[in-house]
Design a protein that fits this description.
This protein has 89 residues and is an all-alpha fold. The protein has a domain of 49 residues. Helices cover 34% and strands 0% of the residues. It is built from five helices and no strands. It is globular and about 55 Å long.
């Protein structure tokens, strides 16, 4: 088997999560949120693209003023004002 130094390996797997908060669980964004590369990557995505990583959709009750402020701090580039409507007004 030949291995290239710039090669990539793709893996298909499943993980367990909560039924009431489907975005939380093993190996979801809540598990990788402190990785600097991941933080920059997520901060640069659109709200729709973040849903691919199990973030709740825009308008979800999870997005309050408090959680949106925390997400903007956690993920540089996250723009809550243009992408999300806080559930608490």
């Amino acid at each position: 088997m030949s291995r290239r130094p710039d090669g990539q390996r793709y893996v298909w797997k499943f993980a367990f999560g909560r039924a009431d908060n489907y975005w939380e669980g093993v190996h979801f964004y809540t598990n990788a949120g402190q990785n600097e590369h991941f933080k920059k990557f997520i901060g640069g995505l659109t709200a729709t693209d973040r849903m691919l990583f199990r973030f709740p959709p825009p308008g979800h009750p999870y997005y309050t003023k408090q959680t949106l402020a925390a997400l903007e701090k956690q993920y540089p580039g996250w723009n809550a004002r243009n992408e999300y409507e806080p559930a608490d007004g």
